[in-house]
Specification:
Helix content: 55-70%
Number of strands: 8
Shape: globular
Structural class: mainly alpha
Strand order of the largest sheet: 1-2
Bound molecules: fe (ii) ion
Number of helices: 16
């Protein structure tokens, strides 16, 4: 059920650095951490970024793409070099289009890392390109409405594999969403700046590593991504924000991070209870790394909101809330408002 505009207004208070209003409601832990940091004002009155943001931004491309005996590790063979496939892409936006047009999940993951590596080496500029209508996907998993996704009991998978499959699906969507944001809004490079695209390419690389970990662990358990149907919900929601970068910035954390991060500790405990400590460590590490993404997205949303003199009152009257279907629930829709505060 959609939240009535009047009741939303009752939950809002003035934002400390813009004319926007932000909700009184309690955000999830991740957003409390990231958002409270993002709203600290500098002496000039401008919001100061999360203290970890700069170190995340300047970190070299992460080569720990396998989950070793003691955690994240580089692959046994030397790190991947940008290959001929990505070399045919002359810009970051073209790399993004290439990843989106790649259906094999592991190839999508590998290309994401190669593309971000080229960006880090300053081999390519943002450039422009056109996104495909929708990301290419493998034949399996079958994508179904959320209500048709099998429960754990009917999936035929043990609990740990079931959880990993769900997480892998979220990570794959996150890869596509980050690259879609790069390519779709590449014509706005002069307005958004290189940092915007660097951040999303970095997020895509992180998500590609997360997918690789999940896929590896699924294989270790005797399963693979595609062994059970998955929902088509995430991309459907994101398609609705394809026309407006501010809406996209609000929807991304709402859809894939706020909910997932709230669930993270619960998933870890379930896996520990199940006796699969290795998978629990993977999930805990992924949840830890998603914290940076929340801070990045919140920061970018704040900047875009300020530059556009975006007012939350307008936001409420705009179709942003409608972007979030009933399946998300009221709490998540209010969380969406928080991101623009
Ligand atoms: Fe992730």
């Amino acid at each position: 059920m959609l939240l009535a505009a009047r009741s939303v207004q009752q939950l809002l208070r003035p934002c400390p650095f813009s004319t926007a209003l932000i909700p009184f409601v309690r955000p999830c832990h991740a957003h409390r951490v990231a958002f409270s940091s993002a709203t600290v004002l500098s002496a000039s009155g401008q919001p100061r970024p999360w203290t970890g943001l700069q170190s995340w931004r300047v970190a070299p491309a992460n080569e720990d793409r396998v989950w070793g005996p003691h955690g994240p590790s580089p692959p046994p063979t030397p790190p991947l070099e940008p290959d001929l496939t990505t070399m045919t892409a002359a810009s970051l936006a073209e790399c993004a289009a290439l990843v989106l047009s790649t259906s094999d999940p592991l190839a999508k993951s590998t290309l994401s890392h190669l593309a971000y590596t080229r960006w880090c080496r300053r081999e390519i500029l943002v450039g422009t390109a056109s996104p495909p209508h929708r990301p290419a996907r493998p034949d399996r998993p079958l994508l179904v409405p959320p209500k048709e996704v099998p429960s754990h009991k009917s999936s035929g998978l043990p609990l740990n594999a079931y959880m990993l499959h769900n997480l892998a699906h979220v990570e794959l969507n996150a890869i596509d969403l980050a690259w879609d944001t790069v390519v779709r809004f590449s014509p706005l490079r002069d307005e958004l700046g290189d940092e915007f695209f660097a951040d999303f390419a970095h997020v895509a690389d992180d998500e590609s590593r997360h997918f690789a970990w999940c896929s590896q662990r699924l294989n270790e358990l005797g399963f693979r991504y595609g062994d059970m149907p998955a929902h088509n919900f995430l991309w459907r929601e994101c398609e609705k924000s394809s026309e407006d970068v501010a809406a996209r910035l609000a929807v991304i954390p709402l859809v894939q991070e706020a909910r997932g991060l709230d669930a993270g500790p619960r998933l870890v405990q379930k896996l520990v209870g199940f006796g699969d400590h290795r998978t629990s460590h993977i999930v805990a590490k992924i949840a830890e790394e998603e914290l940076a993404h929340v801070a990045v997205h919140d920061r970018l949303a704040c900047i875009v909101a300020m530059e556009r003199e975006f007012r939350i009152e307008q936001l409420i009257s705009l179709p942003l809330i409608a972007l979030c279907s009933d399946e998300l629930g009221t709490t998540s829709r209010v969380a969406a408002l928080l991101l623009i505060g």
